[in-house]
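[scheduler] slot 2 assigned
[scheduler] job type: sequence-to-structure, two independent chains
[scheduler] chain ordering preserved from manifest
[runner] begin chain α
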Amino acid sequence: MKESKKCPHCGQWSVWNHSPADRCEHCQALLDPAAFERQQAQAERKEEEEKRFSVDLIQINPDDSALVKFFKSIGLGFQLAFVGIVSFILWLIALLAG
């Protein structure tokens, strides 16, 4: 059974599937703009949260020259060692805290 919703822009009734992206059949405006904005804000927060808790490691591209690959691999080694040491220290603090 399909449901319908009155468009807040043109006032016509359109088929509504309870999706924030549903659009009016007549004017193509969003049927529930508030829900669409909430969904967009939630997606932005999730993306921001993923960026906040991630470590960007050095990327070694296959088309880099041998010298660049060498220095990037040295930098990547230092980066991994640093992340490992910090992780160990945090684990040790958590273990000693109980």
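[runner] end chain α
[runner] begin chain β
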Amino acid sequence: MSKADHSDRARFLARFALLAAAAAVLVVLVSLVETGPLIILQGLAGLAVCAVGAWWFLAHRGIVRVLGGALALGAPMAVLALFFNGGLWFTAPAGVALWAGALGCARGALRADRRPDPPAAVRPGRPPRRPVLIMNPASGGGKVARFGLVERAEKLGARVLLLTPGTHTDVEELARKAVAEGADLLGVAGGDGTQAMVAAVAAEHDLPFLVISAGTRNHLAMDLGLDRSDPSRCLDALTDGVELRMDLGDVAGRAFVNTVSFGVYAAIVQRPEYRDAKAGTALDALPDLLSGGAGERLDALADGRPVSGQQALLVSNNPYSAADPLDVGRRPRLDGGELGVLGIRVDGAAQAADLAVRGALSPALTMLTSRRVEVRAAAGADSDAGAGAGAGAGADAGAASIPVAVDGEALTLPTPVVCTLRPRALRVLVPRDRPGAAAQVPELNWRRIATLALDRPGPGARS
């Protein structure tokens, strides 16, 4: 498709996005004229009641949890009934459909207008001569065997090192030994935690790193645009690959590729039973962690800016998308040189309702970026008791350590825990054809959409 075709497509989609957004607003205004603003207030009240119910369900046990579950399920149904009885049986779904169409077209316009040099610039990759791939047969429910990754990798000339399920293997030491024996590429078919450990060795020796999407969630593979439905396609990089640079996170001297979690999630991951019963373990632990239990408060300094009294804190290798509601679980880029910081502090049902209604505008949610984040237990918090809930640590050791989840792996680290970033430290070899790469578009920007629709070059437009 020519440059002119891309421009025409972007302009068409941008205009359609604005029209659909305007129509959605018009539908809401018409419904207000017909029914009055009361029904909208009722809808917001229903959302708040649903949030309160969810909070009671998560933060309490017994009859309060049962009541909370009933509210969380019943409030949306009551709101739908009000809408239908109020004559919004057509306008409400129409407004939602129009707004969804507006968002989809806006994303399509930005994708069509994408510049030739994306944020993560790639360069031709040289096929490795002695690639070494570390594979975990148990990862992702057995994807290594299901997709024939060992056979395909060996056919392409790679040496495969298989981990033994049920036994502890020092993956970093395995990777270092492979480098000492002449490996010119390191790769991993496994979870993000294993990938981070091997990536650290690859970065240390300035070797290319290959990600094979054989884990359960494959967060890094998703943000690299790799095929998560068929991990064998990741091996195409060995013969027809391109290389890009990405940042590598560091927490207390340990590398991470995705996130470092503190607080509620980290304390739950510490529990031995979590791996076998994630949902049940979380439901059992949350009341203690959310309603005044040990270790639920954290203080942080993000480039010197205080973030106090958080129940959950997530530090990510580059920030996750916030402005685009359809891309909230992704990082638009991996080479921005900044950590993303997301903190949550909910002190009760009222704040839970406020967070549900106001979203990112709620004081319960903190979102920012930083180059250095320092985390410690809040003053007066007994952090070791929180870690001991799952790891058997002593409860009287002061605030010397806190539970931490590094790319999903449970650790207990001494405070303060410092997170930093090594900009563009990791060379990543990816296939030339990445099905998810096309989905990585700039964050949703309605001013840019309006500029495209009016066919006026903006300040950052192409020359």
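[runner] end chain β
[qc] chain β: The mean pLDDT is 79.
[scheduler] slot 2 released
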